[in-house]
Fold this protein.
Amino acid sequence: MRYMKELANKKDFIETVQMKGLTISLIASADSTEIIHHKLDPDTRWALEPEEGWVALEYLFILSGELKLLTKEGFTLYKAGDSFYRNPVTEHYVFQSVGTTEFLYVSSQPVFHRYSQISRDLVNLAISIEQKDGYTSDHCGRISKLSMLVGEKLALDSQQLLRLNMASFFHDIGKVKIPLEILLKPGELTAEEWQTMKNHSIYGRQLLEETKLPLLKSVGEIVEQHHERYDGKGYPYGLSKDEIRIEASIISVVDSFDAMTTDRPYHKAKSSEEAISEIARCKGTMYFPEVVDAFISIQKYMN
Ligand SMILES: [Fe+2]
């Protein structure tokens, strides 16, 4: 144990990647085994997922802080000095940090470069789009935070919450394929331009699918549905009610709220109260009623 702590404290990491709430650093890599130091900000989720065709040991050793393993019944707590392993991973395990938490992750499946590069590229892409799209900053972060509050209020399970967390951050990533003259056009879009713009949800699903990572493929299905409407008048497929995944219904409400309450180049922000009454007005037409109720009940977290 002391050796592992020393190893983690050396800080001569081969490579470090920072993502949303998470810093991962490759400490050592050989014979297709990787030792990766993880630092999670408070309340950050991290998951171990089974991967088709892969049979390998995955091992966690907690260095500091605490990690909750979320289960249907509640959670199991892992503290500094505790370890967790599966050989192989056959289920989905979702952990959540309590305070800042550091752990070592040892895997005989080399994942660092593949996951880190893909995640880094996607996060950078999402951020570059929110800027081009006229949002000042942290639109993706806000959507993600509020979506999680609504998801927790609706008692989604840990797998759904994990996917919601990622889908909400990446919901508009497909806008990268929309021509800039349309994305940046001041004023109203023509009918034809609007048709092009609407493709962004399909492009988002395609982009996430192209990563070939099972988790992101499933996230892509949610992203594709974030402009569907409860009454079936949304796009791209005109799905309605329960045909729309609950995660997508949540993102739809939260995204509308954020758009209404943010100053954009061509529209002035509404107050939170005005935006909430607009969302309440569209309950049962645009938005899933239960999602609207959950959203209204978390108003105290909005500013
Ligand atoms: Fe969108």
